[in-house]
Structures are given as C-alpha cells and as structure tokens.
Amino acid sequence: MARYLLTGATGFLGSHLARLLLDGGDEVVALCRDPHPDLEAMGAKFRIGDVLDCASIERAAEGCDGAFHCAGKVSRNPDDAEELYRIHVEGTRTAIRACKARGVRRFVLASSSGTVAVGSDPEHLATEDDEPDLGLIARWPYYRAKLYGERAAIEANESGVIEVVSVNPTLLLGPGDRRGSSTEDVKRFLQRRIPAVPAGGLSFVDVRDAAKAMALAMEKGTPARRYLVGACNLSIREFFKRLELVSGVPAPVLPLPRLPNLTRWITPWLNRAWTLAEGMGGRFPELDPVSLEMAQYFWYLDSTRAETELGWSPRDPTTTLADTVADLREHAS
Q1: How many other β-carbons are positioned within 10 Å of the β-carbon of residue 93?
Q2: Candidate CATH numbers 3.40.50.720, 3.40.1710.10, 3.90.1150.10, 3.40.50.300; the one for domain 3-174+204-230
Q3: What is the pTM of this model?
C-alpha cells in the first residue's frame, strides 16, 4: 500500500482517480480548499490547502510516496487567461517544489492531449513526439496554459530527487461530471441545443480509463515523458451519429463550412440566423465563437505509447457514450 497526495480530487478526473486508488488499497491525501464529505465517505484523508500555497502542499505531502496533480480549471473564455496561467503553470511549479521539499519521489501530472494533438489535417494522428503548434494553441488560453504547465513539470525532473511524468488525456466522457467541465457538449446535444455540425473532428476517452492511465504512469511511466490517452477519433458528424444511436436523440444535419480562420468573424452572423430560427419555433442558444473555432480543427491522436509502455487499454467507446448519456439523464436538473 502506498500513500499518495492528490490535488484536484473533487474534479471529474480526480474523483475517479481517488476512488481507483482507494479501491486498490492505497492511502489518498486529498488537497482541497474546503472540507469535502464525499471524499471522507470514500475513505480519503483531506487537507485544507491550495495549489498556489506551497506551505499547505508541503503539509499535505508529508509522508507521501507520490503525487498526482489533477488540479485545474477548464475554461474556453479568453477573459480567464490570467487565472488559467496561475492555476496551471504557477500551480504546477508550486506543487512540484513542495513535493521536492517533502521528498516525494514520483509526480504524475494530468495534462491534456491538446498540447500536441490538434491540427488542420484530418489524416494525421498526433504522437507524443509531435511539436506543439504554438501559433494555433496560442489562440486558446486553456491549452496554452496546459502546455506551459506541462513544460514546467517536465523541466522539473531531477535525477535522484523527483521523477515527473505527464499523462495527456483527450476529451473526458463518462459518469460523474457534476460540474459539466467535460460533458457539457453532450448535454447540449441531448437537449437538442446544437443547431449544426462543425467540420472538425475530436477524440474522447472514458474518465475511468484516464484515471487508470494516471495510476499506471505512477507505476511504470518514464520520467520526462508524456503519454497521450484517447479511445476513439471521430469527425464531429460521426460523433453526433453515435450519440444519436445510444440516446435516441436525432443528430443535427446542417453542416457548417470549414472556415477556421473566419469562425470568430462569422459567428455573430450565425447567431443572428439562429435568432431568426427561434422566431420560427427554433430553440437554439447563442453560439460560442471559441468553441466553434475549436470544432473546426482535428484533435486526433495515437495512444500506442500508453498501450505499450504502461499496459493501458480503453474500454469500448460506445459503452462510454452510453454511460455518459445515462448519467446526464439521471442527474438532469
């Protein structure tokens, strides 16, 4: 049995990782800003603290064999850029510094496949050795912050002191996303609030399998390496058709042209069109230009490294979609 520090334990990925570790007999010390009864009920110990407060992390890391860093904020809002940088970059540096001070030997970071696996070529499957497209990633503060946070983590490797491994899951789906950080677009699909089909493609993975990848990386991951984790690459049209099959909700059919460089410019015009549609009985929400722009690109990846080096494998993607839909319906407000 090992003792692990876990940041972000109340989030979508962190909560599943906490349960996985506890079910395996490990001890989990969860760093939280506030007491969390659900974590206590699961058997985790919690410590009050913040990823920007080195002293609180040091106290939580005392006696831990390893650390899982899942803390973060998901946002597509450009106005959140400064906060995203603080949390994902400065927070990661602070967490590693605190773990070094307490002799924690292994540190596994929950990064994102979006640091390398996004581009304009639908035929390309990104690997861990691809160079990030900085010009593209710079458009989206969340992925920019994740990239710089990942770089800060990898650079913190110090032989004989701390070993840092990065796990880069793609879009997380599955049950338990109470904050809507990852499954909001599926929820909007079920509510028939997506009026058209963007021209890009996505990848997704079950959050429970991503948690397993984190645990395997702690055990087997090579220091200073990233591991891309995804179960399925699909065009957005194909993704919607699969959701239609498991949910019974008709998929949108109106295609949007692929104009990634013009998306933010044309979005106001599209919103005017949807407003007119609402006047004729439609019920479409205002489109988010950033989300629409992201959906013009292809987020495809190859998980071979995780499969061969970590022994990781995903479950059937259809099961993930069915479980996501069932969970969203069960907790619909």
Answers
A1: 19
A2: 3.40.50.720
A3: 0.92
